[in-house]
Amino acid sequence: MPVPTIPTPPGLEAIYSTLRKLYPDQPNPLQVTALVKCWLGGPDPLDFISMFGNAGSPMEGIPPHWHYVSSGLSDLHGDGRVHDFTGRDSRSGYGFELTFRLKKQPGESAPPTWPAELLQQLARYVFQTENILCAVDHVSWHAPLDYTPSTMGHYPSSKMSQIQHMLLAEDPQVPTIHTPLGRVEFVQILGVTAEELQAAQHWNCKSVLDLMRKTPPAGGPWLVTDMDRVESIFEIKPKLKEVVTHGIERDGSNLSGVAAKCFWEEFSPTRSFPRPASEDPTLARPGEPSAHDRGSPCGSAVSEIVRTRTLVGAHLRFGYEAAMLLPLAIRGRLRHGRHFTFSSSVSDTTITLVTSNVAGSIADREHPYSACGSWLQLLISDEFLKRLDRDLDDLTRPRDLDLPKEYRWPADGLIITVLPEE
């Protein structure tokens, strides 16, 4: 590391010390730094991103790559300028730093800087939302990871990368460290295709990461991202589709909820049909893509909530991306006696689907559709669940959909409308 002219802040020194042990031959790595630190009013939360050359181990399926490590999500200074100090035994700042491994291109002598921009964008999300990113989370990105502000002007559309989403894992070489300012974990990003993201959502991220570790072209043991990869693990090893299908049937899904475009309103099947879904202004506005899965609001506090009203019927409206997760909610969650929650990304609306096995719900057999403010809970019976699974099966084939599309179950008092994202 560069010899400082003033003492290195204690949190930063702990990170640097760990990286010196890992890369003793690179004491002065290239760094990207925020010109104006966020604690001085700058826009970038990360003070530094260090970039190292890693030789990998080709014999073990680990290619030579660039290793990026952030500094700034954890507490670097200990004086309250960014993060509050909460004790040596608690987490430091947000309790983690981000890392990324990018496969080296032939003849490449210097690391590309776009991964540093990607890390800054993720850090902004954390600082703005205070949602902590953890190993075995996923991030829906909906754009090539290397499509950053500095590359937009000359990004060739003919070379649009298929690596447009992220799975998160523990960095295989950088362990959790205990600094004078608290505990810091190192969470590594792996770039994935849309099909791989969907597998992680429908099953669980940990199991999909294990499959990618065993597939060197898709990540290998150290989960190295190859932006030139065009085939998903299911094209590289077709039998893995069956592994995921069996895993979902056996384990269900670990994803309990998402931030997405959704809206609900009450209606009575005996009254006139509600206005067309295409007139709903709530979903007409484009919103941010969901960047991080959210936990369900169902919890121990639910038993203390007083049911405010019971609905005779409900009309649910979902944006395209949210609707594509309905089969997951049914097959990976409800079928296994679990709940699934859609939290609106543009309002405080929340929709939770539950079964009779979910404890603490405000919806029950006598009041299957119950609302508390803008939070709607729907208890789906086993018999109705089978019909929903059958009738919504075409959502597993999104290319066949003509949007907007409505599904109606008048006897059960439910309408679901799928709307285009724009």
Topology readout:
Layout lengths: L9 H13 L7 E4 L14 E7 L10 E7 L19 E13 L10 H16 L8 E3 L24 E6 L6 E3 L2 E11 L1 H9 L2 H9 L19 H4 L3 H12 L5 E4 L1 E5 L14 H4 L24 E2 L3 E6 H4 L2 H8 L6 E5 L5 E5 L14 E4 L2 E5 L2 H10 L13 E5 L4 E6 L3
Parallel strand pairs: 4-8, 9-13, 12-18, 14-16
Antiparallel strand pairs: 1-2, 2-3, 3-4, 5-6, 6-8, 7-8, 10-12, 11-15, 13-14, 15-16, 17-18
Textual characterization of the structure:
The N and C termini lie far apart (48 Å). This protein has helices at residues 10-22, 114-129, 194-202, 205-213, 233-236, 240-251, 281-284, 320-323, 326-333, 382-391, and strands spanning 30-33, 48-54, 65-71, 91-103, 138-140, 165-170, 177-179, 182-192, 257-260, 262-266, 309-310, 314-319, 340-344, 350-354, 369-372, 375-379, 405-409, 414-419. It is built from ten helices and 18 strands. The chain has 422 residues and is α+β, with helices and mostly antiparallel strands. Strands 1, 2, 3, 4, 5, 6, 7 and 8 form an eight-stranded mixed beta sheet that branches. One of its GO terms (cellular component) is nucleus. It comes from Nematostella vectensis. Residues 42-229 form the Suppressor of fused-like domain. This is Suppressor of fused homolog.
Residue share in helix = 10-25%
Largest sheet: 8 strands, mixed
Number of domains: 2
**Gap between N and C termini, in Å?**
48 Å
The secondary-structure class comes to: alpha+beta
User: What's the pLDDT, averaged over the residues?
Assistant: 88
Rg, rounded, reads 23 Å
> What gross morphology would you assign?
globular
Q: Which spans of ≥5 residues are poorly predicted at pLDDT below 50?
A: 272-306
- Quote the beta fraction: 15-25%
N to C succession of SSEs: HEEEEHEEEEHHHHEEHEEHHEEEEHEE
User: What is the strand tally?
Assistant: 18
